[in-house]
Amino acid sequence: MLQPVLPDTALPPVFAQWFAVRGWSPRPHQLALIEHARQGESVLLVAPTGGGKTLAGFLPSLIDLAETPKRARKPALHTLYISPLKALAVDVARNLETPVAEMRLPIRVETRTGDTPPGRRQRQRHSPPDILLTTPEQFALLISSRDAQRFFANVKAVVLDELHAMHNSKRGDLLALGLSRLQTLAPNHRRIGLSATVADPKPLQRFLVPQPMTGETLSSIVIGKPGAKPKISILSSESYVPWAGHLARHTMPEILAAIKQAVTTLVFVNTRSQAERTFQELWRLNNDNLAIALHHGSLAPEQRRKVEAAMTRGALRAVVCTSTLDLGIDWGAVDQVICVGAPKGAARLVQRMGRANHRLDEPSNAMLVPSNRFEVLECEAARDAVIAGELDGEPLRKGGMDVLAQHILCVACSAPFDADALFAEVRSASPYRDLSRTDFDAAVDFVATGGYALKRYDRYAKLRKSPEGLWRIAHPRIAQQYRLNVGVIIEDPMIDIRLQSKGRPAGAGGRVLGKLEEYFVETLTAGDTFVFSGDVLRFEGIHENAAYVTRTNDPEAQIPSYNGGKFPLSTFLAMRVRQMLADPRQWKKLTHPVGEWLEIQQLRSKIPDEGELLVEAFPRGRKHYLVCYPFEGRLAHQTLGMLVTRRLERLRMRPLGFVVNEYALAVWGLRDMSGVDMDTLFSEDMLGDDLEDWLTESALYKRTFRNCAIISGLIERRSLTAEKTGRQVTFSSDLIYDVLREHEPDHILLRATYEDAATGLLDIGRLSGALTRVKGNITVRALDRVSPLAVPALLEISKEMVAGEAHEDILHEAEESLVAEAMSVD
Amino acid sequence: MTEKRIEVNGEELVLDSAGALWWPSERALVFADLHFEKGSFYGFTGQMLPPYDTRTTLKRMMALFDAYSPALAIALGDSFHDRDAPNRLDGFEREQLASLGERADWIWIAGNHDPVPPSWLKGTITEEVAIGGLVFRHEPSEMNARGEIAGHLHPCKTVTRRGQSLRRRCFASDGKRLVMPSFGAYTGGLDVRDIALRSLFPKDFFAYVLGRARVYAVAG
């Protein structure tokens, strides 16, 4: 029987009946959302996947539309739904059709994504549907159109799905700015945010509602019932666990066995190259010819479609995939999720598990497969965190200036704007609530003429002030150009991989197999073999921005492709791992090889305490090593390594190089470094001048700059002329960075880059926090030989590529002698 | 500064890590592909690149003039990015350029697709010039390439060491002919593995990669 939660909340009869016929009861959170909507309040719904969350987001709108007779309304947009993935928008639209059709509601539901044909898009602008499902980029495009005012004037509700995944990112910035514009166009609309469980919901509650000039406002919040406790197993051997590497080759037979026992399995890995290798390894053992497919972002789109279609048909037993499949889509029959390698964060793990078995009341099944000893600790920590219901918090970012620049141009394309009014509007967007007027004006100046002290571009100004004092675009072409370049997702520069046609010379065209990062292809010479798209390919040469390859019959590739991890270990998980290490009683649940590893570490050196920085110094071969254990993730360690090495150089310690992994930094050199003053070496003042100096050279920093340059519109991704002629002019953003830094070090783009670096590829913010924490808490151990804890880091030294995956054989050899040395107890 | 000495068609040449060529016996300094005002050229497309590339290029050129005190200076084509470029120079840049024009005899090589340097610039304008065992032209030719010093291709090489990959401009030579790196501050590069460049050298060649203060010879 239906039991309304709140006295005035009764579902309209049609809806109540629909639920009853299906044998469902409306859930409390669904009813709560209806009530908030009735009050016109914006609300955040926090609930696990599979609990009728999406329906909860739409019910208020469906009810509202059902209660207004169709004759009384002209075609106008009532509800806007925005999700981060276009496939998700399409999927949700399809699911929404069911209640609409079954209740015979006179409601038009449509989607609008990059794939929507131009004819339909045109028609949507003149005759909008009642409910439009779309993406943040399409939303920005609609805001930028000349009839945005008319199009959005009647909007009553906005539903933001997967808000936890979007809000704290550049996409979130762009979305927040778009919503601030919508607030001006449709002042009376309410918002619903749908989110998975998060550590702290306040930032999302802020995101949902306009912020005042001072202080803050939060939306209401409804917390859904937690789902059944997840069942997480960790596959780990009692006899052998690798010391380093990310391939988990030794577990492939067990993974295959698990696939056999389930209906459909998702095998998640952290990087594209791991996906390729895992796919290969599984097929090598796949004597039963189970239908196992591969899915990652670099494959040609048609190939991805094929896999997605087969998945929906239920034709696949397993898909080896990367995070491109992480979000939202309900693949129905998936009943098992296997995560190879560490999940990098409890939140990621929960999301991935949400993919299996979308029935809320049944526990989802996940199997974690650590690929090396340290990952065993990471996996244990992640499992404990998920079961305890704790998730990672994230450092909050401020709104990016590059995204603001893109938005200013967006608004100008729609209609001339008044600077004072736009500033107030932008400030109401949560990520920009602390924006200064000076910075806002600098952003406008940048959009108009590049923001340079040298006034070279006045004649080409993109924005001009009208006699009334409004800023408007100088030429319609600028709006066209803006529309081609909307968005904040920047890929690394990619080049096409073309299969060399038989009998034709290299460089003469060929089928495109997909794309690879330019910086990987740059390192290949003719004859090198690597794995891609499930095959072992031979690099032949490049021509006109395409790399030419031929297929080989080699079972093995020489070159490991690409780097070890896209996401570093999250701060939260790192902390849990440290806690686990610091408490020997917790080691009991670890398998024997891992437990032994830690015990001998304790014997020979020490296990770092929770708050301390352990530094070990030891000789090996003809070199001296300094290994420290900050546990702050690869990226922060990479930055730390650069800075520490510079300091050691100044101290004449002759450092030769360094390597990092998720928990350690190892430096090696010609001199014994055990006597160095560690408090000075690791002092946080290294983030001043030393950092400044290093940043000029850093390739990672320049990559961050490139992203800002593209997002802000300084460099366009796609040009009008290229669309016509097919030839793209590309600029080296590195050269632009060098010149800009020399002449205008305070330019807005350089500041945007620096702020990005704090949380992005250099993780400076995280490093800064770590250095402050360990101040005065550094313990040094001078050892006569390598310690067990240092072994994985040292094994990284045998790798040739950028933080790449070592070929297993190389590892094996190095490992034998190194391990013997470390683990002997005398 | 540390430099690399090589021989091209019997003539001894010095490769400077700034990306210019020094010919001791003729006291000649050679630049290729200066592309003045490339930055400002794209203003009309809405891409307003920092308009400081010309003065950066000029500053680097002046440092080389100070270091070598050449009698002869040769610019190997594409000196100005486009026909209108000379008009976009401001007073300061024009002054700098003019002063360089006073410090040596200048030869401005201009291929038939190149914008012609402005009349107020001192020096000879020609399509190609032969001096001693060398011939200077803008675009590498398929024939008569012995002793050729050419530009146009902007060669670059990626070097991978110790897990780091660096992409840098380079000279490319097999001892018989040489392709110069581009000198302009905003000039990018064509990979030495590209067929367009490989086809110039029948056998092996060297890539002389520009480091911060040194030139590194690696296999091309």
What is the beta-strand fraction of chain B? 25-35%
Helix content of chain B: 10-25%
Helix content of chain A: 40-55%
Care to count the β-strands of chain A? 25
Low-confidence stretches of chain B: none
Structural class of chain B: alpha/beta
**Based on helices, strands and strand pairing, what is the structural class of chain A?**
alpha/beta
> Largest chain interface and its two residue counts?
A-B, 52 and 36 residues
- Compute the average pLDDT of chain A: 83
Note the quaternary state here: heterodimer
How many structural units, i.e. domains of chain B?
Answer: 1
What would you report as the Rg of chain B, rounded to the nearest angstrom?
17 Å
What is the CATH architecture term of chain B?
4-Layer Sandwich
Number of H- or I-type helical stretches of chain A: 32
N- to C-terminal distance of chain A: 73 Å
Q: Indicate the overall shape of chain A.
A: globular
Strand order of the largest sheet of chain A: 3-4-2-5-6-1-7
Query: How large, in whole angstroms, is the Cα Rg of chain A?
Result: 28 Å
Any key phrases for this structure?
heterodimer; A: 826 residues; alpha/beta; six-stranded parallel β-sheet; globular; B: 220 residues; Purple Acid Phosphatase, chain A, domain 2; 16 strands
Short description:
With 826 residues, chain A is an alpha/beta fold. Chain A has 32 helices and 25 strands. In chain A, helix 16 crosses helix 19.
Outline the secondary-structure elements:
The complex is a heterodimer of chains A (826) and B (220).
Chain A: H1 13-22, H2 28-38, E1 43-46, H3 53-67, E2 79-82, H4 86-102, E3 109-112, H5 118-126, E4 131-134, H6 136-143, H7 148-152, E5 157-160, H8 163-166, H9 170-185, E6 190-195, H10 202-208, E7 220-223, E8 231-234, H11 252-261, E9 264-268, H12 272-285, E10 292-295, H13 301-313, E11 318-321, E12 334-340, H14 346-353, E13 365-369, H15 373-387, H16 401-414, H17 419-427, H18 437-449, E14 463-465, E15 471-473, H19 476-484, E16 494-499, E17 512-517, H20 518-521, E18 529-532, E19 535-543, E20 546-551, H21 571-582, H22 592-604, E21 613-620, E22 623-629, H23 634-650, E23 655-660, E24 665-669, H24 678-681, H25 689-697, H26 699-712, H27 720-725, H28 733-743, H29 748-759, H30 764-774, E25 778-782, H31 791-795, H32 808-823
Parallel strand pairs in A: 1-6, 1-7, 2-4, 2-5, 3-4, 5-6, 8-13, 9-11, 9-12, 10-11, 12-13, 16-20, 21-25
Antiparallel strand pairs in A: 14-15, 16-17, 18-19, 19-20, 21-22, 22-24, 23-24
Helix pairs in contact in A: 2-3, 6-9, 9-16, 11-12, 14-15, 15-21, 16-18, 16-19, 16-26, 26-29
Chain B: E1 3-8, E2 11-16, E3 21-23, E4 28-31, H1 38-41, H2 53-68, E5 72-75, H3 85-88, H4 91-103, E6 105-109, E7 124-126, E8 128-131, E9 134-137, E10 148-150, E11 155-161, E12 164-173, E13 178-179, E14 190-191, H5 195-198, E15 206-210, E16 215-219
Parallel strand pairs in B: 4-5, 5-6, 6-7, 9-10, 10-13, 11-14
Antiparallel strand pairs in B: 1-2, 2-3, 3-4, 8-9, 11-12, 12-13, 12-15, 15-16
